[in-house]
């Protein structure tokens, strides 16, 4: 299956998951992580989904699927164990030009969900075009080993530095080289070690002429809040 890689912005957008089992639970978790407002249609729910519904974190329709339920949705996902229901969900969504994913049935999909590695704002997505989900999982596991949890605070720090620098120096030609020096410095390793003193020293070496020590210290404290060191 040929695909076009894309990251959908669905923050605060309504999304539908048809199916309240283990697969549906995973779909809901991914959608919520992206900030979506999720509605689940199912006669039954897993304990985790039931808890989310009881807390009002998802909307719950304890009924069978009906075509009208897809109206107004940004994305639709079918995750039932009934192929006929899944096919009906796909048909209803496609008839309304709504993107739809059907678990383990790429022929009914207008988009497929890649294997993912998330480290804060860093998202790595892997797809084999449906040819081998097992290989996609293997590649994901390999990437999880290479891109460790330090990438979360590391990227947070880079984002904070970039935002502050552009707020004070937007459009200056040396901004690009400064960002390049940062990502090619040992900054990530220092973050991984939780060594705030070294992190601050490295930032001062690259940015000390354009951002003050107190400003850099504040950015480090914000990004590395909760880490060791």
Q: How does this structure look, described?
A:
It is a single chain. The protein is α/β, with parallel strands linked by helices and 229 residues long. It folds into 2 domains: 100 residues, Rossmann fold (3-Layer(aba) Sandwich), CATH 3.40.50.720; 73 residues, no CATH class. The strands form 2 sheets. The protein has a 5-stranded parallel beta sheet, sandwiched between helices. It has a two-stranded antiparallel ribbon with strand order 6-7.
Write the layout of secondary structure elements.
Elements: E1 14-18, H1 22-33, E2 37-41, H2 47-54, E3 59-61, E4 75-78, H3 83-95, E5 99-102, E6 115-119, E7 122-126, H4 133-146, H5 151-169, H6 175-183, H7 187-192, H8 196-207, H9 213-223
Parallel strand pairs: 1-2, 1-4, 2-3, 4-5
Antiparallel strand pairs: 6-7
Helix pairs in contact: 5-6, 5-9, 8-9
Descriptors:
229 residues; alpha/beta; 45% helix
Quick summary:
With 229 residues, this protein is α/β, with parallel strands linked by helices.
Topology-level CATH name of the largest domain:
Rossmann fold
Oligomer category: single chain
Overall 3D shape? elongated
User: Order of SSEs, N→C?
Assistant: EHEHEEHEEEHHHHHH
Mean pLDDT: 94
Cα separation of the termini: 47 Å
Strand content: 5-15%
The secondary-structure class comes to alpha/beta
- Range of helix content: 40-55%
> Reading side by side through the largest sheet, how are the strands ordered?
3-2-1-4-5
Number of domains: 2
Radius of gyration: 22 Å
Low-confidence runs (pLDDT<50, min 5 residues)? none
User: Which superfamily, in CATH terms, is the homologous superfamily of the largest domain?
Assistant: NAD(P)-binding Rossmann-like Domain
Identify the CATH architecture of the largest domain: 3-Layer(aba) Sandwich
Number of helices: 9
Strand runs, count: 7
The major sheet is characterized as: 5 strands, parallel
CATH class of the largest domain: Alpha Beta
